[in-house]
Design brief:
- The longest helix is centred in the N-terminal third of the chain and has 12 residues, at about 80-90.
- This protein is α/β, with parallel strands linked by helices.
- The chain is built from ten helices and 18 strands.
- The chain has a seven-stranded mixed sheet with strand order 6-7-8-9-10-11-12. Strands 1-2-3-4-5 form a five-stranded mixed sheet.
- The protein has two domains: about 10-250, Metallo-beta-lactamase, Chain A (4-Layer Sandwich), CATH 3.60.15; about 260-300, no CATH class.
- One zinc ion (ZN) binds near residues 50, 52, 126 and 127.
- This is MBL fold metallo-hydrolase.
- Keywords: Activator.
- Pfam families: Ada_Zn_binding (PF02805), Lactamase_B (PF00753).
Length: about 300
C-alpha cells in the first residue's frame, strides 16, 4: 500500500489475510479503507515489524477495526505515544503479543510463511529488531524485511533457512544501511519493491541501492512513483499491477493504469489497443472492466474489451 514514508502490506490467500505494518498514525484510516475495499473482515495475522511509527502508527486503527487472530511483534519496547497506543489497542481487545521465533512457520491458506529474524535479543538499532519473514506458495516466494539493516541481514545469512525469493520488499525504504551485496545475492530476487514517500527527508531510496538493483537486472517498483503495488501469484508466475488506490490524489496514479478508455458521450468503453478510440477530450479512463461497467459504460462492439 502507498502510505507515504512507511510500510503497509496486505497478503491474501484462500480467504485468509495478513497485514505487515500499517504506516504512520495518519495512515490508519487509509489502511483500514484499503483492507475493507479488499473484503477483509478478519486479519489472521498482524505483524508490527518493529516499533518505529512509520510501521506501527496505523496499527491501532486496524486492530480496533477488524477481528484479529495473532499479533506478532518483536520483544522490544519504545517510549512513544504511538507505541503505547498500539499496546492499549491490543490489550483492550484481549489479544496477546506473539514473539517471533526464527524458524517458526505459519499457514496462510495454502501459502506458508517463516520467520527469519530477529535472530538476537539486543540491538543498538531499533530497525534490526524487525520481524523478517519469507512467504511461499508453490513456486512463488516473497521476502519481507521491515527495516532490517546490515547486522540483521548478516545474521540471516548465517542461518540455514532458504532465502531465495522472487520478490524482495527492500529493507528500510531503500536505505544504504540495508540490502548488502551478500544479502541481495542470496535472495536473488527478480523484482524489488520499495515503500517510501517522494522527497522524504532521509534521501531514500539511496542512489547506491537503486544502482545495485539496476546492475542486477532487478525490476523495481516504488510506492512513491507507482502508488499501491499489487503482486498476484498463482503458484507459478507473479504478475504486478499498479493500483490506482492512492491516499492523496487518486487521479495522479490512475494514469498508470489506463487499461480501458471510455467515451464520455457515447458511454462506450474500449480496450486501449482499439483503433476507434475517442478524441482525447472525450476520454475517461478505467483501470478494469468492472470499473467501467460500474459507471454505466458498455463494451465497444468492435474491440470487445
Ligand atoms: Zn521504516
Ligand atoms: Zn524503522
Amino acid at each position: 500500500m502507498d502510505v507515504g514514508q512507511g510500510d503497509a502490506l496486505l497478503i491474501q490467500k484462500d480467504g485468509q489475510n495478513m497485514l505487515i505494518d500499517a504506516g504512520e498514525n495518519k495512515y490508519g484510516k487509509t489502511v483500514y479503507d484499503y483492507l475493507q475495499k479488499n473484503g477483509v473482515t478478519k486479519l489472521d495475522y498482524v505483524i508490527g515489524t518493529h516499533p518505529h511509527s512509520d510501521h506501527i502508527g496505523g496499527l491501532d486503527d486496524v486492530i480496533n477495526g477488524f477481528e484479529i487472530g495473532k499479533v506478532i511483534m518483536p520483544k522490544v519496547s519504545h517510549n512513544t505515544k504511538t507505541f503505547e497506543d498500539v499496546l492499549v489497542a491490543i490489550e483492550k481487545k484481549g489479544l496477546k503479543i506473539t514473539s517471533p521465533v526464527v524458524g517458526d512457520s505459519y499457514d496462510l491458506g495454502e501459502a506458508k510463511w517463516t520467520v527469519l529474524a530477529p535472530n538476537g535479543e539486543k540491538y543498538d538499532n531499533l530497525n534490526d529488531y524487525s520481524v523478517v519473514i519469507r512467504l511461499e506458495y508453490e513456486n512463488n516466494s516473497f521476502l519481507f524485511t521491515g527495516d532490517a539493516e546490515k547486522q540483521s541481514e548478516e545474521e540471516i545469512l548465517k542461518g540455514d533457512i532458504s532465502l531465495a525469493s522472487e520478490v524482495l520488499k527492500v529493507g528500510h525504504h531503500g536505505s544504504a544501511s540495508s540490502t548488502t551485496d551478500d544479502f541481495l545475492e542470496r535472495v536473488n530476487p527478480k523484482t524489488a519493491i520499495i515503500s517510501l514517500a517522494t522527497d522524504n527527508s532521509y534521501g531514500h531510496p539511496h542512489k547506491e541501492i537503486i544502482e545495485k538493483l539496476e546492475k542486477n537486472n532487478i525490476k523495481t517498483y516504488r510506492t512513491d512513483t507507482h502508488g499501491t503495488i499489487v503482486a498476484s501469484g498463482d503458484g507459478k508466475t507473479i504478475t504486478f499491477e499498479i493500483n490506482n488506490f492512492s491516499k492523496e490524489d487518486p487521479q495522479s496514479s490512475a494514469k498508470d493504469s489506463r487499461e480501458y478508455i471510455g467515451n464520455k458521450n457515447s458511454q462506450v468503453f474500449h480496450s486501449k489497443e482499439c483503433n476507434q478510440l475517442p478524441q482525447e477530450e472525450n476520454r475517461v479512463y478505467f483501470k478494469d472492466k468492472k470499473q467501467a461497467k460500474d459507471q454505466g459504460y458498455r463494451p465497444h462492439s468492435v474491440c470487445i474489451p
